[in-house]
Amino acid sequence: MAAEKRDIYQHVTDQIIGQIEAGTPPWRQPWTGGQSGVHFPVRHNGEEYRGINVLMLWATAARKGYVSARWMTYRQAQELGGQLRKGEKSAIVVKYGTIEREGEDGEERSIPYCRAYRVFNADQIEGLPEACYIRPDPPRDLGTTADPALDAFVRATGAVIITTEEPRAYYDLARDHIHMPPIGTFFSASGYYGTLAHELTHWTGADARLARIRRFADRKTYAFEELVAEIGACMLGVRLGVEPQFDQSGAYVESWLAALKEDKRAIFRAASEAQKALDFIMAQAGKETEAAA
């Protein structure tokens, strides 16, 4: 697998900036067009991709109309007995690692690197074992009634949920609780749980948990934290089979774009923090996520 020589951070950031400016950020992609099901993209061996790779492959799947969750390199497809169809184009994923280098003082140091690789969706490959052609289910249609299983999941996280008639959903950092309007005031139950997923992601950022909000205080916290919550809400929604709700106001989009244009690694950090938030929520609820590379 040959590594990409371009600046992968800038390449991915430019792609995502373009998608946000077009009104189609990649964390919205799993439901666009009604063809793609709800799933996390997985490698040839069934391990889930994580962080920025999830966003990149969601965007490619939505743009190309792929419905399978499985991705692999050309060589991996051959090893599984598959044959890439003529003219098919690859997607980019990234791999993180470290290399040991000697510094000027003679001490060995671990230098992090980010390398790009090319992968193909199973829908682009013929002759693979049937198990490779994953056909996920669409999001659950919850109607307007509460879902006991989702309510139980939220309770299991330990998050304190306060419900009043105040027509706002938010996480109160000082009091460490989530406020939600009554479920009956939402147009659909999926809207309620999607909004709650956004606030749960904020909840993970408190000092008593992942301490994310304080750690990123010098990086335009509000815009960055909202970006993390948007991505985290989508990841949690996919995990639970519920379409999340997004609040893409003009102010949010403008602040996200400013942050991404100033720092080409910001979207990588946001995706990483969203993944950590998802892992924390699932662990708290007793449903550990797979720790795939």
UniProtKB/TrEMBL annotation:
Ranges of residues in domain Polyvalent protein metallopeptidase: 149-272
Species annotation: Rhodovulum steppense
Protein name: Antirestriction protein ArdC
Pfam families linked to this entry: ArdcN, MPTase-PolyVal
Molecular function GO terms recorded: single-stranded DNA binding
InterPro entries found in the cross-reference section: Antirestriction_ArdC, ArdC_N, MPTase-PolyVal
Record-annotated N-terminal domain positions: 7-120
Ranges annotated as spanning the membrane: none
